[in-house]
Amino acid sequence: MPVEMLEKYGAQKDPDNKVFAYSQKTRCLKLIQRLASEGDHDAVYQCFLDTAPMAWALYSQWKAHQGFVGTRLASIIRDGRKIIAVPDGIIFPIISGHSVFMRQDGSRWVMQKPPLLTDGELIEAAVEAYGEIAKSNPQTMGKTKACYSAITRMTRIFARLPK
Q: Is position 58 within any domain?
């Protein structure tokens, strides 16, 4: 969910902390229910309609992203050199980092990822967080705020660059 929406409706004290999306699915559902009932119902509903397909597309893209070839992450499932599945704990922080690129374009939400930010840079940041912060444990990475912050810090810098 875009940070702007979380901040607008006071959905959480730290809108950059999205660790709960990985480890507390019930909390996600309750947040959606609260936003839909307490906020501007139409705006919240439209945000979900616009962003859910983008989030699913990101998830699908990163779940078997071939950019992880050569990273030597033991937790990735491979078939030879082909990446079959990247653990959710590694890709959730990457997906979360994309939230800084969400903008309202008229009445719709769109993702405006700057062309200067490459998937390789996101993979490099994720691999570093995985090894240094999460101690090579994908579940730890998915549940650790510092892993999300490391990637979001980088994406925020790219989001501020002139278009």
A: no
- Distance of alpha carbon 45 from alpha carbon 109, whole angstroms: 11
Greatest distance between any 2 Cα atoms in the chain: 50
Domain of 13?
3-52+65-160
Q: Are 96 and 18 in contact (CB under 8 A)?
A: yes
Average pLDDT value for residue range 64-82: 95
All residues at 6 or more sequence positions from 112 whose CB lies less than 8 Å from its CB, including other chains: 101, 102, 103, 163
Give the predicted TM-score (pTM) of the model: 0.86
Residues 110-162: pLDDT tens digits? 999 999 999 999 999 999 999 999 999 999 999 999 999 999 999 999 999 88
Q: How many CB atoms lie within 10 A of CB 134?
A: 21
Residues 6+ apart with CB under 8 A from 61: none
Percentage of the chain with pLDDT > 70?
90
Cα angle 16-20-25, degrees, rounded to a multiple of 5: 140
What is the number of structural domains in the chain?
Answer: 1
Does residue 57 lie in a domain region?
no
